[in-house]
């Protein structure tokens, strides 16, 4: 396995008030180091000295160096970042499924904080914050000029303390102002429900350290209620998380020793294949939680639900089940985050999160800036027009898809077989009162109902206008 296996990988983007997965450096002790650009370093030293001597206010060395590192890393791509001590600590805590904040996965665009996805059952989700929203103000502070790390710090805070967000939303004639109460967020990674006799529903909200064990328990609970004729795995708006979680979830539904994903980068450590074997999805030498799964779970007909908020680890699972023809993928085109981030600890309890490789599906397809195109495209009428939703290909400095270099932007998904009905007009403030998917496996969930129709052998219905 080498050092790469020992490291663990990150699937999720940088998160504001939300969980990110943790990896350990594997590149700090390389035997061969590249030569340093002496002339450029001299220029850096001169700029450093000029600021120290002539800037209007004194700036300490640590701040200057931290800012330099942050700028160097953050300008590589949307997912590489410098993590100061606070951000690094939050990242480590976040992988355990409990953290403080608002519950938003964010990135940066044009100097503003851009929402990738709100996390279910969090203050951001309940307030109606949407994917694609631009946060331009935090309380009385304008975001323009702040780094992403600085903005995230301001969104964090003690539970039950308020913060006012100024938001720009496409389609709104004027900015929105939402006041949220911070809270300790405990994300329940897996949820389940027997939606009908013989039909089980599994929802994964993010991929954390306990996701595989939790999934195994939920599967066992469903089968205890009787044999299943079909399974729906819901990965909509799941922003990703730990790679081993994605491999373990895939292993629950695929035969042993089946290829789930591969990674490829510039170093030998970055080239690896991950299979449905315990050594590829367990982070410790403990008992395999999938060992006691019912054998039928790997044969029961299955549909996987995805949308534009399904990213990273979610796309790995969907791509693996699609390539091996284990499940029908239903929904809309996924986000397209197919890059690997490795966290490399630095002195002073800081770290850098560096993009080190790309992900590929078992058949060799690159996920990057392209995502997973569903086998059956079904749009959610309640979501309205999703054609302009934020995707990896819309982010500045995103990596190109190396399997499709002539078309670095995400290709358009096939036309939907059922044109979604126009969303009903809403009054200002309605969005905050009615966030989507509040009820687990709701009877009003149009896309879920079409998945159940498919499992029953029924025709997928056109929504009523």
UniProtKB/TrEMBL annotation:
It holds the Pfam family CtpB_N-like. One of its GO terms (biological process) is signal transduction. Residues 1-23 form the signal peptide. The keyword Protein biosynthesis does not apply. One of its GO terms (cellular component) is outer membrane-bounded periplasmic space. Residues 397-414 have a biased composition (Basic and acidic residues). It comes from the Bacteria. GO terms for molecular function: endopeptidase activity; serine-type peptidase activity. Residues 415-424 have a biased composition (Low complexity). Gene3D superfamilies: 2-enoyl-CoA Hydratase, Chain A, domain 1, 2.30.42.10, 3.30.750.44. Residues 88-156 form the PDZ domain. InterPro entries: ClpP/crotonase-like_dom_sf (IPR029045), CtpA/B_N (IPR055210), PDZ (IPR001478), PDZ_sf (IPR036034), Peptidase_S41A (IPR004447), Tail-specific_protease (IPR005151). SUPFAM superfamilies: ClpP/crotonase, PDZ domain-like. The keyword Magnesium does not apply. Keywords: Hydrolase, Protease, Serine protease, Signal. Residues 397-441 are annotated as: Disordered. Belongs to the peptidase S41A family. This is PDZ domain-containing protein. It comes from Rhodocyclus tenuis.
């Amino acid at each position: 396995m080498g050092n790469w296996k020992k490291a663990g990988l990150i699937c999720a983007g940088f998160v504001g008030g939300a969980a990110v997965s943790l990896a350990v450096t594997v590149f700090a002790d390389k035997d061969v180091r590249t030569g340093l650009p002496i002339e450029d370093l001299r220029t850096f030293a001169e700029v450093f000295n000029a600021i120290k001597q002539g800037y209007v206010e004194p700036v300490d060395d640590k701040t200057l160096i931290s800012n330099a590192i942050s700028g160097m890393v953050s300008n590589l791509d949307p997912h590489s970042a410098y993590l100061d001590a606070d951000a690094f600590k939050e990242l480590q805590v976040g992988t355990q499924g409990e953290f403080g904040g608002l519950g938003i996965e964010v990135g940066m665009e044009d100097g503003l904080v851009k929402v990738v996805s709100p996390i279910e059952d969090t203050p951001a989700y309940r307030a109606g914050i949407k994917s694609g929203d631009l946060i331009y103000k935090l309380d009385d502070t304008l975001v323009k000029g702040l780094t992403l790390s600085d903005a995230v710090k301001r969104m964090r805070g003690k539970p039950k303390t308020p913060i006012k967000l100024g938001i720009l939303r496409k389609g709104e004639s004027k900015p929105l102002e939402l006041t949220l109460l911070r809270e300790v967020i405990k994300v329940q990674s897996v949820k389940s429900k027997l939606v009908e006799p013989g039909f089980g529903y599994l929802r994964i909200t993010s991929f954390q350290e306990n996701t595989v064990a939790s999934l195994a328990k939920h599967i066992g609970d469903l089968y205890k209620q009787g044999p299943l004729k079909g399974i729906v795995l819901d990965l909509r708006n799941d922003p990703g998380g730990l790679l081993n979680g994605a491999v373990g979830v895939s292993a629950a539904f695929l035969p042993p020793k089946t290829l789930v994903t591969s990674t490829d980068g510039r170093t030998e450590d970055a080239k690896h294949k991950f299979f449905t074997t315990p050594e590829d999805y367990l982070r410790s030498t403990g008992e395999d939680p999938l060992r006691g799964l019912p054998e039928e779970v790997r044969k029961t007909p299955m549909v996987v639900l995805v949308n534009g908020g399904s990213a990273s680890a979610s796309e790995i699972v969907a791509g693996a089940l699609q390539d091996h023809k284990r499940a029908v993928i239903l929904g809309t085109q996924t986000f397209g985050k197919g890059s690997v981030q490795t966290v490399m600890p630095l002195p002073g309890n800081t770290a850098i999160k560096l993009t080190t490789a790309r992900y590929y599906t078992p058949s060799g397809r690159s996920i990057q800036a392209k995502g997973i195109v569903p086998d059956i495209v079904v749009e959610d009428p309640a979501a309205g027009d999703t054609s302009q939703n934020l995707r990896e290909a819309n982010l500045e400095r995103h990596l190109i898809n190396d399997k499709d270099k002539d078309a670095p932007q995400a290709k358009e998904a096939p036309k939907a077989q059922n044109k979604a009905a126009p969303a009903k007009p809403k009054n200002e403030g309605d969005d905050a009162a009615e966030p989507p998917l509040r009820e687990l496996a709701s009877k009003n969930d149009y896309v879920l109902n079409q998945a159940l129709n498919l499992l029953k052998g029924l025709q997928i219905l056109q929504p009523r206008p």
